[in-house]
Amino acid sequence: MAVLKYEEIAESLRARIAAGEFAPGATIPSGRDLAEQWDVSRATAIKAVDVLRNDGVVVAKQGTGFVVTETPVARAAGSRRAGSARILGGMPFLRIGTPDWSEPSARVAVALGISPGVLALRRIRVLQLPDGTPHSCVEAWFPPEIAEAAPRLADTASIAEGTTRYVRRQTGRLPAEGIDITTVRLATDTEAERLGVPAATPVAVLLHTANDREGHPLVCEEGVTPFSLFEQVDTYSM
Hints:
30% strand; alpha+beta; 7 helices; two-stranded antiparallel ribbon; single chain; seven-stranded antiparallel sheet
């Protein structure tokens, strides 16, 4: 699939941010400057910046332009379905611990297409509400072939260009299909501690798997949200 020009510009900016050329709080080039640098229309340049803004990489600052975010931003668990309203949009998050190789649960192993006992790379984060309280906790699991081809996934530091684009750059594979399975259960002790809720609080669990064009999984994310914060809206034709 050909990369559109605005995507190429956004990808370039992500790489420059990841390399430290634009530190947190630094202003990225304006739409006018980007248009001149890339010999594109200003509308194309603005569309590229909008990609970064929508992903939480940059934010608008009055009188300055767009600056690199101080805090990494993620999407709320439960907001991935096509046609669904993104209730909360981008959310700041805290990385929990260090990415590690662990044995996933049976349902995650099935989603990843790996055999029982095979280890996968796990990254854990807690998404936060505007006041800093936890909204949901997310465990992202990467199958061995993806984690080995994309070594930065094992780093504690956030990947400024985004894990999806990084994996695409390292492997040539990109998501073509998403599968979401939502269930309800009681929080485990570990989940309750991460979310700051009483033990055995009812939670909604979203198991999100992203597959490439061949149907092979790139990542499986298990997002856990307390029942009082979970809301899913589907919009469809009738």
